[in-house]
Amino acid sequence: MELVSVCIPTYNGSQFLKESLESVKNQTYQNIEVIVSDNFSTDNTMEIVNQFKKEVDFPVKIFLKKRKSIGSNWNNCIKKSSGDYIQFLFQDDILLPNCIEEKLKCIKKNNLKIVCSKREIIDDKGSKVNSGPWYDSCHDLQKLNLGLDIDNYYLLTKNDLKNINFDWCSTNIFGEPISFLYKKEIFEELGLFNVDYAQLLDLEFGYRVLKKYPIGIIGKKLFKFRLHQNQATNVNLKDKIESRREENKIKEILTNDFLRYMSFEFQKKYYFEKYPRIHKKLIRIKYFKLWL
Q1: Boundaries of each Glycosyltransferase 2-like domain copy (predicted)?
Q2: For a FRET experiment, which of 162, 221, 241, 274 has its CA 20 to 30 Å from that of 81?
Q3: What is the pLDDT of residue 289?
Q4: Tell me, what's the pLDDT at 291?
Q5: Are 84 and 10 in contact (CB under 8 A)?
Q6: Residue 290 CB: number of other CB atoms within 10 A?
């Protein structure tokens, strides 16, 4: 029976951490270990984790990690894990009871390296979010960004990138890291998360995987993703310069590794952006013909 490592990177997460840890207790699949990598929290995060450790039968391993970047904390979890599979859980999110079991069944049934699932969106009070600007642009990533309406299961391949919008190609098409179940060997083969990214490191890793392997997408909602002001996403997005730099790096990955799979419109915009003189020349020719 395969061991699943539930990896929980923490930093001052006491506000929602008890609820997150409770969702680990309630998993229908119980051959698990919990790996907590803490960035020397200054609130009572570690008290909550230590109390949780006393209440459960499965191993809970706690490590302190000097604060460098969110990626280094994620990677520390992976390095310290012993499982065959990696399931991330962040200090403000919640795994639904069948989350690990459903993902593990899917990954084994379809002989995959990695699967992800859809998610329910909640607010800081735990209530469902069904409207608002963020919801409108992010509630169904595959449908909104790839035109894929997934009810049950879908095998995502490079060919599905044809519908990505060139101007918004840094948009997440997979899901947050908690949405994934990874075979641990994928990190041994492709490397860990890129710590040069502050925000889009999960997206960069998703494309690194997709370059070589398909990704299974489960249509069921298997976790709850919490929207609140202090989450890492909102904090990191305040750095506009860094956000733009990372978006450009993702666009570079797409154009270097996946351009042949993109739509003609995407390819046209790419070449016009890369070779602006050609673009201007074509425009002059177009308007000259119209004038004639």
Answers
A1: 5-188
A2: 221
A3: 41
A4: 40
A5: no
A6: 7
